[in-house]
Amino acid sequence: MADMSRRELLKLLGAGVGGAVILQINQKVELPILTKPNCYVALYNETKEVACNGYARASANLVLASDELLLINENTIEFGKATGAWGTVTRFALFIDPGHEIARGWFVPTKTICRGDLIEIDPGNLQVEID
């Protein structure tokens, strides 16, 4: 296990080894270096994660942009169809196994999720700055 800085971890997520964002977390995470960790996106209503009506965190494949200063989602991130109202989604967080939050950001504009809405983030629309 290696002790990695957030910058090193974010680069690993985008390296393929094995809305706009403001990063807020400076922490170290222990991970095996030989494999790319799984990354998940969680949606939030202000301070609480959405927790009802068909919601589940979505898997995300982040890749490093050519300038190595930005991670972007390579594929569509799919949360599925809301089976009930989720309220107004204002922000998101990125998690890696086994549930370590590594970054968070805000959606501009926010989105009110109603029953039947299909929630997806198109390729390239989730961007994480590596500072």
Architecture blueprint of SSEs:
Layout: E1 2-4, H1 6-15, E2 29-31, E3 39-45, E4 48-49, E5 58-60, E6 62-64, E7 70-73, E8 77-81, E9 87-96, E10 100-113, E11 118-121, E12 127-129
* H and E string: EHEEEEEEEEEEE
The radius of gyration over CA amounts to 15 Å
Q: Into which percent range does the helicity of residues fall?
A: under 10%
Q: What's the average pLDDT?
A: 75
User: Which structural class do the helices and strands define?
Assistant: mainly beta
Report the β-strand fraction as a percent range.
over 45%
How many helices does DSSP assign? Answer: 1
Unreliably modeled segments: 15-34
**How many E strands?**
12
Overall geometric form:
globular
Termini Cα gap: 23 Å
Most strands sheet: 5 strands, antiparallel
Number of domains: 1
